[in-house]
Design goal:
globular, Probable 2-phosphosulfolactate phosphatase, alpha/beta, 232 residues, 19% strand, binds D-malate, ComB-like_sf, magnesium, five-stranded mixed sheet, 10 helices, hydrolase
């Protein structure tokens, strides 16, 4: 598991990269794909995302935890519940998550989208793959954050019997997750982005993003689009 500051392009080569941004980009992506959205195109910048509206995409944009100027959809997973946008193609840009996906494209064998809400589905899929895995934590503006690294610990813990751990960060986060897994909400209430979101009165998103295994799909990048792949 690496914070963005530690990602080096050679680390990615021919690995399966699991990109994670718990609060809230990858949690939102998995929720949307599990609720019938046909695809999500992650976009690094606001202007490109805005221009995709004219191509028939529903556009979703967030900066610093708030909907970006001119965007109807921000980045709350709750927006997509009850198949609210089923059948739609979405173009999405967020502060950190979509950038982390962009950075992971060069050399990855596959890019998956990781979240607590589909943790077991992602672990189950990875156990069937004969590949090295790199967990790319989006972090916050290039810095380490607690929730993404705790997810990395959770995934490492779920894979520990099937994979060898080649990174001290992964060992540390596995231990941190196993110590706090019984009270993720309590432990992560101290996370800096949780506090940022609390200041915007979006606690409901935080609780939702920390619910384990709501969905049994994986999110996989196919070309430029994220699509759902059900896991039996
Ligand atoms: C991010 O990209 O860091 C998050 O999506 C920010 C957010 O939605 O609060």
């Amino acid at each position: 598991c690496f914070s963005p500051a530690l990602i080096h392009l050679h680390d990615i080569n021919d690995k399966i990269v699991v990109v994670v941004d718990i609060f809230r980009a990858t949690s939102t992506m998995i929720t949307a794909l599990s609720n019938g959205v046909s695809s999500i195109t992650p976009v690094a910048d606001l202007e490109t995302c805005r221009s995709m509206k004219a191509e028939g995409y529903l556009i979703a944009g967030e900066r610093n935890g708030q909907p970006a100027d001119g965007f109807l959809l921000g980045n709350s997973p709750l927006t997509y519940l009850d198949n609210a946008f089923a059948g739609q193609k979405i173009a999405m840009t967020t502060t950190n998550g979509t950038l982390a996906i962009e950075k992971s494209k060069s050399g990855a064998r596959e890019i998956l989208i990781g979240a607590f809400i589909n943790l077991s589905a992602t672990a189950q899929y990875l156990k069937t793959q004969n590949a090295d895995i790199l967990i790319h934590c989006a972090g916050w503006k290039g810095k380490f954050n607690l929730e993404d690294s705790l997810y990395a610990g959770a995934l490492v813990s779920a894979l520990a019997e099937d994979f060898s751990i080649a990174c001290d960060g992964a060992i540390a986060m596995k231990s941190l997750y196993e110590t706090n897994e019984s009270d993720l909400q309590g432990f992560l209430s101290q996370a800096s982005h949780a506090k940022r979101l609390q200041n915007h009165n979006i606690e409901a998103d935080i609780d939702f993003c920390l619910q384990l295994d709501q969905y049994m799909i994986i999110g996989k990048l196919k070309g430029q689009e994220l699509v759902a792949q059900p896991i039996k």
